[in-house]
Specification:
The complex is a heterodimer of chains A (about 220) and B (about 80). Chain A is an alpha/beta fold. In chain A, about 20% of the residues lie in helices and about 25% in strands. By secondary structure, chain B is of the alpha+beta class. The chains are: A alpha/beta (about 220), B alpha+beta (about 80).
């Protein structure tokens, strides 16, 4: 499959994301924030970083980048979209996902290997995992606290839309230890930790993150 | 030049770690008696012409769409007297 990775001004993890896409067995297509088309890709990754310097709010300016108009439209048609870290923030600001991400409750940037439990394996980004599988990937954020009102949280939990949850310790004050969620349709996933940094044994926290990039193929074969 | 001010504040139920950090720093500087601090943002929008109700409605639209995130923030819009 062709997987587009968007580079915004201030994106940091776009190159790692493209590499993870290739290691996952797909063709990585570099997309630019100013693009008005998605170059025929089958899926899109919004990578981590500090797009537009996190000015105003994380993701608030990126949401209005020309390419996001195309991403929002494609997501509405069911295209798989994965937002990692800053990408998750952009998805929330774009209203593709509910809730918001706010400054870590302890006020410090956190960077560590983080254990997660994958709780929804029905998305095109998590189909490679076993239900309830525990994985360790890199986590690094300053504004990673997931917040939403109680009704939204209850709905996310009730509909099985919590994709991943923090284990051992909550690194950023996210409500109900939520590390990642999906939309109603299940094609859009936002994740605060970084699976793209855990795809090779040589670097990072092992290869547990690779499943997010091999899942696209598994999901395609299943459908 | 007429100025419209938009104040954006974190909703009361949203934890404000920045405000908490400021609150924690105040007693260390000898400022006692502050019970709570919330930190927000202030936007000043200058307009060439008169600030009509239509302009204010448009500012509210801006505040909803860009200046604030309604999930976590509240905002107020007011015209600032520039006669001084």
């Amino acid at each position: 499959m062709k997987v587009g990775v968007v580079t915004f001004p201030g994106s940091l993890d776009d190159v790692d994301a493209r590499r993870a896409v290739r290691i996952g067995g797909h063709e990585a297509v570099a997309l630019w924030h100013g693009d008005h088309d998605l170059r025929g890709v089958d899926a899109v990754v919004l990578p981590g970083g500090f797009s537009y310097g996190d000015y105003l709010r994380c993701g608030a300016i990126s949401r209005f980048a020309p390419v996001m108009t195309e991403v929002v439209a494609a997501a509405g048609r069911g295209m798989p979209v994965l937002g990692i870290c800053n990408g998750f923030q952009i998805l929330c600001e774009s209203h593709l996902l509910p809730g918001a991400l706010v400054r870590n409750d302890h006020q410090r940037f956190v960077c560590r290997d983080q254990r997660l439990r994958i709780e929804n394996v029905a998305t095109p980004w998590t189909a490679s995992y076993a239900d309830g599988q525990e994985v360790t990937v890199v986590l690094k954020n300053g504004e990673g606290g997931f917040v939403a009102d109680v009704d939204t949280l209850d709905r996310l939990e009730g509909e099985g839309r919590v994709v991943a949850r923090y284990l051992d310790q909550n690194p950023n004050g996210s409500l109900r230890d939520i590390a990642g969620i999906t939309n109603e349709r299940g094609n859009v996933v936002g994740l605060m930790p970084h699976p793209e940094h855990a795809v090779e044994a040589l670097t990072g926290a092992g290869t547990d993150g690779l499943g997010f990039f091999t899942s696209l193929a598994a999901a395609a074969f299943a459908s | 030049m007429p100025k419209v001010v938009v104040d954006v504040m974190p909703k009361p139920e949203i934890l404000d770690p920045q405000g908490k950090a400021v609150l924690g720093a105040l007693p260390r500087l000898g400022f006692d008696g502050v019970a709570d601090v919330r930190q927000g943002k202030r936007f000043e929008l200058d307009f060439e012409g008169e600030v009509t109700d239509a302009v204010l409605a448009e500012v509210r639209d801006m505040a909803e769409k860009l200046l604030s995130n309604p999930v976590i923030e509240d905002f107020t819009v007011r015209v600032e007297d520039s006669a001084r």
